[in-house]
Amino acid sequence: MLPAFDAFDYIVVGAGPAGCLLANRLSANPQHRVLLLEAGGRDNYPWIHIPVGYLFCIGNPRTDWCFKTEAEPGLQGRALSYPRGKVLGGCSSINGMIYMRGQAADYDGWAAEGNPGWSWSEVLPLFKKSENHFAGASPLHGSAGEWRVERQRLSWPILDAFRSAAEQSGIPRIDDFNGGDNEGCGYFQVNQKAGVRWNAAKAFLKPIAQRPNLTVLTGVEVQRLLLDGGRATAVRAMAQGRQQDFKARREIILCAGSIGSPSILQRSGIGPVALLQRLGIGVAHALPGVGGNLQDHLQLRLIYKLDNARTLNQIAGSLWGKMGMGLRYLYDRSGPLSMAPSQLGAFARSSPEQATANLEYHVQPLSLERFGEPLHDFPAFTASVCDLRPQSRGRVEIRSVDAGQAPLIQPNYLSHPQDLQVAADAIRLTRRIVAAPALQAFSPSEYLPGAQLQSQEQLHEAAAKIGTTIFHPVGTCRMGHDAQAVVDAQLRVHGIAGLRIADASIMPRITSGNTCSPTLMIAEKAAELILATTTRSPAPEKQTASPA
């Protein structure tokens, strides 16, 4: 049923992590009529909520946009699957559930580039505001928020051995990656509650479902923004099989993510002039940076065969093992079905010249040739390592004005020489860790990329062969004040009144870690900025209900 109001105060486009939080905060004032639009469906698919169910959500058109990149020259011409959540909760419904803020230096760097209000000391309270940390309130953590953070509910001897090997290799043990300096090795903390995925829809929407001033619509795909005199006043969308315009009296906030937000802008005639003219789209406002500055973490998945080890490969490879996993999860929500995709993490420096840790490891007690294929029939673990601060930059461009056509996504992985150097150094560091005494009881042998690859050129080729996305695209509507910036430090789109962006696309530089919780922080910041503006502006006139 479509809403009966002729206009809303705020329209939030996209019900991913940012959109869910923002809808919650803006609708807390009963005077604000808030509309949240989501192109996907409800989050009622059972595999969303069982942690290991990400295997059945990624690549599933019910929950994933199923995007693909262009053929990547830096990856031997391979085109990668590029998962993005298409469901309430967005990527928080299909991701790895890892709670990670990044490093203090990330945010201090944003502020130093001319974005006041975004330093570590200023964003830390925003992280804490939404957090519900298992250890309670502290100078670093919050306990009164909605975003549940817990310890994982299982451990593995092979992962414990990797942690000891990392320590023997100079990477210290660490219990908390979220204090501003995440260098070290330890088990990830996760966004779960009692062994069940805790997505943004559960955290921020379900508790306020009865607010009469909040309307949440699913299955509504925004085609474009409507402008009037340089102001964004409405969104045009396909809803229930027909075109519908939704009007905003105060602001429209795009939370459609690093692929969706630039695509909506470009379809609205806001973006690079050459692209818009090539597609026959009228130029409403020239913003050359829309869709540029795409950054992502490329993971190199090194696989090691083992002796004397029990991994998920063997457990999931038998009927009895699968039955045992299911019974254990039914009994106490633990065991392999409660697993985040990666359990053990490590942050390290690829070389002594790095000021802070520039590598992140996701270590898994399993292996497979590529995502979506069966596990190997031999015991093994995967040490996936990514460059946290890539220098390569890509782009997102719509192919036509048709919202149903997937955009061009070109990350340009390993196109910068520095990224190739870091990749080679990362492989060498991984080999040093695996050669440490703590792992030798398991007799690890390198399955991929292969121990025979040793020269710099061979390691570059290996990175191109095994590299794949770890699903952290950011930066395509960059915050800043130069000619390529799309939003200012208040998240207002340059040159368009009544329009903000609050998602990972605004990051000037990618954070040093997983990007879901930083995206929530961005939305928390946006809510404060918007509400501060509201208190300084006249109250809106009373609305008259009318059929939509």
TrEMBL record:
Signal peptide span per the entry?
none
Task: Provide the cofactor list for this protein.
Answer: FAD
Alphabetically ordered keywords of this record? FAD, Flavoprotein, Oxidoreductase
- Give the matching Gene3D superfamilies: FAD/NAD(P)-binding domain, Glucose Oxidase, domain 3
- For whether the record's keyword set contains Transferase, the answer is no
What positions does the domain Glucose-methanol-choline oxidoreductase N-terminal occupy? 257-271
InterPro entries registered for this protein in UniProt: FAD/NAD-bd_sf (IPR036188), GMC_OxRdtase (IPR012132), GMC_OxRdtase_N (IPR000172), GMC_OxRtase_C (IPR007867)
**Pfam family of the protein (one):** GMC_oxred_C
Q: Which PANTHER family match?
A: CHOLINE DEHYDROGENASE, MITOCHONDRIAL, GLUCOSE-METHANOL-CHOLINE GMC OXIDOREDUCTASE
Q: What is this protein called?
A: GMC family oxidoreductase N-terminal domain-containing protein
Which organism's genome codes for this protein? Pseudomonas sessilinigenes
